Amino acid sequence: MPPRRAKAQSQPQPQPPTMWPLVRAIGGVVLGLLIIWLAYEQGHAAGLQAQSIAACREAKPLWNKEG
């Protein structure tokens, strides 16, 4: 009885054509765009937060009746 390793080497099975390289490429592009969009949204939210903090500092709060 021959060992399995020799039998597997003597008859290599042909690999069917797959679309995995294309799927990986598209997935990489989508993931990159998602990361860029999330970074943009974080920066945009931080900018809005900074603007609102500056606006609150400029305006006198209603509970401050010193002036």
Descriptive overview:
This protein starts with a helix and ends in a 9-residue tail after the last helix. It has two helices and no strands. By secondary structure, the chain is mainly alpha-helical. It has a domain at 25-66. The protein is rod-shaped, with a radius of gyration of 31 Å.
Largest sheet: none
Element-level helix/strand string: HH
Percent in strands: under 5%
**Tally the helices: what do you get?**
2
Describe the structure using short key phrases.
67 residues, mainly alpha, 2 helices
Question: Which helices and strands occur, and which strands form pairs?
Answer:
Blueprint: H1 4-10, H2 20-58
Transmembrane segments: 21-40
Keywords: Membrane, Transmembrane, Transmembrane helix
Characterize this entry briefly.
Keywords: Membrane, Transmembrane, Transmembrane helix. 69% of the residues lie in helices and 0% in strands.
